[in-house]
Records
---
Amino acid sequence: MKRFGILTSGGDCQGLNAAIRGVAKALYEEFDEEVEIYGIQDGYRGLIEGIYCKMKPNDFSGILTLGGTILGTSRQPFKLMRVVAEGQVDKVQAMKANYKRMNLDCLIILGGNGTHKTANLLSEEGLNVVTLPKTIDNDIWGTDMTFGFHSALEIATNVIDCIHTTATSHGRVFIVEIMGHKVGWLPLYAGIAGGADVILLPEIPYNIKSIAKTLKERNKAGKRFSILAVAEGAISLDESKLSKKEFKAARAAMTQPSIAYRVANEIEQITGQEIRVTVPGHFQRGGQPCAYDRMLSTRFGAAAARLIMQKNYGNMVALRNGSIVPVPLSEVAGKLKTVPVSCEEIQAARDIGITFGD
Ligand code: F6P
């Protein structure tokens, strides 16, 4: 009898259930009746606290198109994993103990960057671990694409599309704030796909005067409206010169609810134009996975099962140049896949007149 544990950790995204289904179905196929799968509840929290249950094959049916995660998820900050406060359990030891208690052959972990740091830690501690890269941010090092990204892209693009019609009617300037954490993949792609006029990314610090100049030029050219796709992680040129500590303090002192509102405020002060702000927020992570994500999640799931069959543990399944390949967790952990400022996508955007506020 083979026993596997599966958990989803960190922020949810579309395609998690499709990936869970993919890996479970492939494992049941390969091992016939000789397999038990334990669903661990709410990510690492369930592994720490020993909250899990034996799943039935039918539990993995009918979930391909379902958003969120049937296993639940939670954020367990990596920096606290090693901290054992007085009177508290040692989380790493607790996770190892529950892995042993379940008598697992392998733990399958679906997660983003923070999750991968902990997965690598568990692998270093001697647990058999295989991971799948999920996140709408597409910021996991080692894979060309994460599942969740394309579904969120569809939603964010749709938001910009909808803003277009009202912006055109009223002749207004709109800012759409797009998720992506500290990287700009989602705002970049949604901005281009949605036809934004200005895109602000964390990778290209913005100069507010340059944005104001673009807007004035558009006015002069008779354009009735302008749309700015602003990354939630966008930073100004001045902020880019601050130390980490100074940056944190500056952001803590910010009076606006988010970066989009601050940019709006700054532009209003320079141009006198009234700006409207739209923040779709977690909407971008919700709902059904798009066809691309169902496909990628299923491919990742099947590939993870293949790695398990081969006892090729300590790896993340990754998409590279169209193929699914294993990437060692030690290479993935602690790195961030940012948008290269000279990438082809940014060049294409510049070629058609989109500006980046630099
Ligand atoms: O990592 C996915 C993500 O949606 C980011 O884009 C965003 O910065 C963050 O999670 C939001 O986190 P939370 O769900 O904890 O508010």
---
Amino acid sequence: MLDQSRSAISTLLDERREGHSLPAGLYTREDVYEADLDVFFRKHWIFIGPECDVPEPGDASVIDVAGSSLIMLRDDDGEVRVFHNVCRHRGARILDEGTSVVSKLVCPYHQWTYELTGELAYAPHMGRDFDKTCNSLKPVNFRNIGGLIHVCLSDDPPADIDALEAVGRDRLLPYDLKNTRVAFTQDVIEHGNWKLTIENNRECYHCAANHPELCVSYIDLDFGFDPESLSPEDRERAARHEALYARQIVAWEAEGYPSAAIEHLSKTESNFRTQRLIISGAGESQTPDARAAVAKLTGIGRKDLGDTHLWGHNSWHHFMGDHIIVAAVIPLGPDKTLLRMKWLVNKDAVEGMDYDLHNLTSVWVATNEEDAALVGRSHAGVSDPAYVPGMYSPFTEKQLDWFAGWYVDRMRAHGY
Ligand code: 3BY
Ligand code: FES
Ligand code: FE
């Protein structure tokens, strides 16, 4: 029964004040969570995994998201395909979550058998009038964005994915994700709402105090500082940083590597940001000493091209010369979110010879654990009756304000 004592979701959206974090219910309520799944995980493009999850024909990977189970596979012609993991007979799941190698897709229940193109090849006992051609697996709308597989579960997907596709073509393709291999996967369950996971990733206000490992190589994005509020040393550092970016971006672009920021963080259907970032210290990679961890580089072939970062509304990625990290954010409940990060290396790089796995992964493994603790802490706080939305820093948290505004706009656009 509808609980009349609780305000409608639209009232919560009305309560959102610009420059401030969201009203508690938008982070904590079950009905908002269901609405979020519907709007942001079924009606928008979401990242589900890199194409090197299925490197060879017959490789399949199952991803469960927003109540749907999806099969990503590589067919016999080497093409990526994505299907709903729902048998056209009586609906049974065909494959289990995780990866497998298949020559055909055989439903375990009554052995209906599908080609890797999704066509139904074999369905015993169905009689002469049964039309196999009407019973292919249901395909899922997907785009391969420079090797990052994005799907949209709606029949009316946002058209501005074209802008992200251009980023994939111009900035990500040179890294040749197709010829990388997953060296390591880390699944972290964060005890918080998915929006807190995203908010936490979009600011580095918390970095100095919480990420000693990442801070060796990571320079915070420059979203503009208030010179008045900075100490003379910080002001000097910010000015140096700004000058460095100005020079480096021009130099990279002159060499043919697009580097300037592209921001679709508000007033757009899809939400993303990319920029080629400078790496601190030795300047090569997000490792304990900021040097490349992998001797055989990715397709870009250089380790002096910084870190091309890409944020989506359920993902973040860092493309570096020696390796790439990709992260998918998958909501599991109002207060439970799966963060799945993968480390990709040149497919010919051999562990123990070309890289040491701990050296490759330790920075982000630690960072993710630290962030998970922060997200848990944050969710616990916003669930407390004492919570009232707090003010975002107009400098280091501007992009959170854009995210919250985008969130409200997209909810409105879908009738809330
Ligand atoms: O992954 C990012 O985009 C960075 C790293 C830490 C915080 N965040 C802004
Ligand atoms: Fe798949 Fe019957 S449900 S073959
Ligand atoms: Fe963090």
